[in-house]
Amino acid sequence: ALDSASQDHQLIITSGGASTGRHDHIANVLKDLGEVHAWRLAIKPGRPLAFGQLGPALFLGLPGNPVAAMITFYQLVQPALKYLMGHDGYKLPTLFKAKCTAPITKRPGRMEFQRGFYNSRNGELSVKPTPHQGSGILSSMSKANCLIVLDMDQKSIKVDDYVNIQLMEGLV
Fold first, then answer.
1. Percent of the chain with pLDDT over 90
2. How confident is the model over 21-30, as pLDDT tens digits?
3. What is the pLDDT of residues 115-141, one digit of tens each?
């Protein structure tokens, strides 16, 4: 089905099967039928993402966990779609500084996108992470209005530390 779809489409997107579990076959199928350009990104959530080529079509295999799929779509697929559609002047989303109102545990080594809820009071932004940040917990996305973007080398965040946030303005 993927080989057939690659003949008629510029981009193929799948969700699930991109990790290393017993039922995850996307990376191997991509290797067998085409080329793997990247697999397993240093981001959380969203590490098991496959990117490659199937015949003339580009291929993106998103993770199966709902939050991981949404984050990788928002950060990677949406910009790729805009580029493929010929949008001129695409730029990365604006990041804003906000004071964190709760601690965040993080180890250096990969970029993290924590879900959060920001507000503005007296001209200053503050942000609180949503509870339960697991990649399978969809409520963390439905309750959030921003992503807390933590760089690869960043360590744990204390209350009143400033962090970068990316507003979730919708997938437009």
1. 51
2. 777 678 788 8
3. 999 999 999 999 999 998 888 888 888
Residue 84 to residues 57, 79, 93, Cα–Cα distance (Å): 11, 9, 18
Residue with tokens 């437009």: 172
User: Tokens 């109102």 map to which residue?
Assistant: 101
Read off the tokens for 39. 């697999």
DSSP 77: I
What's the token pair of residue 70?
Answer: 């949404």
Q: Which residue from 34, 65, 35, 32 is spatially nearest to 48, judged by alpha carbons?
A: 65
* Bridge-based pairing state of the strands 111-121 and 43-44: parallel
Residue 86: CB atoms within 10 Å:
7
The CA-atom distances, in angstroms, between 107 and each of 104, 112, 150, 151, 153 are 10, 10, 10, 10, 8
